[in-house]
Amino acid sequence: MILNLSYKKFFLLDGIGAVVTALMLAMVLSSLEPLFGMPRDILYWLAAAAGCFAVYSFSCYLFLKENWKPFLQVIAIANSAYCALTLILIIILWENLTLLGMIYFIGEILLVMTLVRLEWKKSLVTS
Questions:
Q1: Per-residue b or e along 64-89, where b marks 16 or more CB atoms closer than 10 Å to that residue's CB
Q2: Under 8 Å between Cβ of 118 and 3
Q3: What's the rounded Cα separation, in Å, for the pair 8 and 22?
Q4: What is the 3-state secondary structure (H, E, C) of 41-96?
Q5: Rounded to 5 degrees, what angle do the CA atoms 97, 99, 101 make?
Q6: Residues 5-63: pLDDT tens digits?
Q7: How far apart, in whole angstroms, are the C-alpha atoms of residue 127 and residue 122?
Q8: CB within 8 Å of 29: residues ≥ 6 apart
Q9: How does DSSP classify residue 2?
């Protein structure tokens, strides 16, 4: 099961996911803004947040040796806040978003919140 992965692999997985998100938002969705409906400046801000999360997660992956649980909880909380912000943006910009935009952002929220749930569970295990 995925909870058997080392804490380092959780940080690596989170960092890779954050890089993919940042690239999708900044390069793909922003260049195809009319297909998704999310304003380009908002996409860049979301991408910047994902980039910061990537730096944090990769730093934890590379440098943490012990006392990793609070650091995993921090990224789980940050990811949850990112999802909450994305949901708020979906609600505010409902009329601007296309069906493709809705599918992308709701799918992203579901995927990230699945990771959050696993990160939180991992941070609560005794080993």
A1: eeeebeebbeebbebbbebbeebeeb
A2: yes
A3: 21
A4: HHHHHHHHHHHHHHHHHHHHHHHCCCCCHHHHHHHHHHHHHHHHHHHHHHHHCCCC
A5: 55
A6: 899 999 999 999 999 999 999 999 999 999 999 999 999 999 999 999 999 999 999 99
A7: 9
A8: 36, 38, 43, 104
A9: G
Amino acid identity at 101: G
Which position has the token pair 């979906």?
A: 90
Indicate yes or no: pTM above 0.90.
yes
Q: How many Å from the N-terminal Cα to the C-terminal Cα in the chain?
A: 15
Distances (CA, A) of 59 to 11, 24, 35, 38, 108: 9, 22, 35, 30, 23
